[in-house]
Amino acid sequence: MDSKSTVVVTGFGPFRQHLVNSSWEAVKELSKRGLGKTIDLHIMELPVVYQKAKEQVLKIWTTLQPLLTVHVGLASSAKAIIILEQCGKNKGYKEMDACGFHPEGGCCMLDGPEKIESTINMKTLWKNISVEGIDIIFSRDAGRYICDYTYYASLYYGNGRAAFIHVPPLSKSVTADSLGKALQTIILEMLKQCGEERE
């Protein structure tokens, strides 16, 4: 009865003018807090590079075989808002990554469907949680950049058992600690939806 469920949470590394990526800072804070005794939490920093991020995501699903993988990314335009993303899109990736590349044909998976929905119902999640000092909204468009691309790849490899959370940049009012705490609240609620009732 003592088997733990594996949950993987990823953040992204620096890109453009963002020398500190709030997503990775938040994930590091989350790992200090953990997700309770029954969850084996793994964290990983993904590069803002299409192909490398996709390779790492495939590795997560093949080697760790998690119950759930949650990707956290930076929404640089968001102020004190956390965005729960419902689905990932396959096409339309025209923007260059940190290495100056974008996917061939602007596509993530040549044989993949147009979009893949998460098995987590973000609207239900959004109704059930509140986080101090930060508004939470949900969205059906993750923005057609590395975030959306990574999310789609993870939904594809993980049969929909992935989630994506956009976090705002760090500021006086939004600290890494407060984002880490928010991630903990949100992910524990996601795990309830996975049928894993937590203390």
Automatic annotation (TrEMBL):
GO cellular component, one term: cytosol
Keywords: Cytoplasm, Hydrolase, Protease, Thiol protease
InterPro entries: Peptidase_C15, Peptidase_C15-like, Peptidase_C15-like_sf
Pfam families: Peptidase_C15
Residue ranges of the TM segments: none
GO molecular function terms listed in the Swiss-Prot or TrEMBL record: pyroglutamyl-peptidase activity
BP-aspect Gene Ontology terms: proteolysis
CDD domains according to UniProt: Peptidase_C15
Annotated PANTHER family: PROTEASE FAMILY C15 PYROGLUTAMYL-PEPTIDASE I-RELATED, PYROGLUTAMYL-PEPTIDASE 1-LIKE PROTEIN
Stated family: Belongs to the peptidase C15 family.
Protein name, UniProt field: Pyroglutamyl-peptidase 1-like protein
Lineage: Eukaryota, Metazoa, Chordata, Craniata, Vertebrata
